[in-house]
Amino acid sequence: MALVPSFTNFILLWALTYALVFGSYLVFGAAFTWWSGRHPERKIQPRRDGQKRRNKEIKASARSLIVTCGCFAGGLHLQLMGYTLFAPWALTWWSAPLMFLGSVLLFDTWFYWVHRLGHAEPFKKYHLLHHQSVAPTVWSNYSDTFFDAFTQQSFFLFMPLIVPFPPAIFIAHRTFDHFNGMIGHSGFEFAAGPSSRAPWPLASVTFHDMHHSTFNYNYANHFSFWDRLMGTLHPRYDSAVLAMEEKIAGDRPAEDPALAVKRER
Hints:
The chain is mainly alpha-helical. The chain has one domain. It has helices spanning 3-36, 54-80, 95-118, 124-127, 146-153, 155-162, 167-184, 205-214, 225-230, 237-249, 257-264. The protein is globular and about 55 Å long.
């Protein structure tokens, strides 16, 4: 009989997660769209208008978030029920940031390899919906199929059962990934700097924008080290970041990465 209230609690947690994520997606997306309209100098692909796909992407996101939020709610619920290999570690002032960083690093590894798998047969067909957004916008982050959403976001379903990070760490990480993913798809650069190009490992917005405009490069999420190690970093990524820095500073116009790739061919 204990399974009945447990399942009910899971459904309630799933519904609450969906309401918070989809609600903040709409509010933050609208706010960011308003802000970005006042900063055209930060637009990465100035010759393309990704906002034409906005309504399609919002509808696709409303569907895929059912799976995304189900994965997160499922992992959190099972961890709270005690279905874990190890008891979660205690939070302290020094362990919390280390566990948060560890979770982000684990997710970046998970995301890189699952994402590369999504570009290979026979899974490629499930990932094509996301790549219809050649010039991504803040609305593009969750424009996925159910398969895509599950393979990428099931990290939050399985890791709470395996890795002894407490629920607060996974909640903080998922919140960070939610907003970071939306900004990373926004098409407007705000993180271009020395830390997001060689020899440093952080990824700028240009990193993922080039993935959408060129398709076969830059598979990771938060960092570039997996792509650098595996040879899948776009050969012009570092120079594109530097060009965007200079564009934002007003020194010279940056070059559209998609046009640069056409010339290279």
